[in-house]
Amino acid sequence: MDSIEKLLEQIKAENENPGPKSPDQVQAKPTPKPGKLPSANPPKVMYNLDSLLEKVQSEAKEPKVQPSLNVNPIALESTSEGLGGHLDQLFGDVKQEVEAREQAEQLQREQERQEEAKKLERLKQKQRFGLAKRAQEWLKKLDPYSDEGFWFGQFAEHYSSKLEAAIAYLEANPSEKRGEG
């Protein structure tokens, strides 16, 4: 509890029980006349309040002693060089490790892309080989004197061979590709 609250409680207690509480109050208490017993003694209460007020004010004016801590400042320059050098080395090691890991991952991704490109190329070659077989069969069945044969003859003039022309024709015409023609 706060000292002011204690004093207020003390005042309330004195008002309820007008008997003396402290030695100061005993000396300051005027003696009542035997024939006269008042129910409440206002000068006594005022005197007690005044003394308590003086006591509170004197406590408030007294400087509070705070414990002082003697802390020596750490020489940051010398410490930071030691720690900084160590931290810089650790940071450099971690950075190198991360860079090496990133390079390894990048190399792995590049290899995966190359493998995928090779797979696609093999697939295209396989499809082209299958298409070349179909084109040869289609050319064998083609009647050069029919309307389609006449048209194909003119179409094939722009290619290096009739087989290349037939492959291009079958690639462009999906129904012929499946053999539905």
From TrEMBL:
Domain of life: Bacteria
Coiled coil among keywords: yes
Segments for region (Disordered): 1-45
Sections of the chain in a coiled coil: 94-126
UniProt keywords, alphabetically: Coiled coil
Biased composition (Basic and acidic residues): 1-15
Pfam families, alphabetized: Slr1339 (PF26643)
Annotated NCBIfam families: slr1339_fam
Name of this chain's protein: Uncharacterized protein
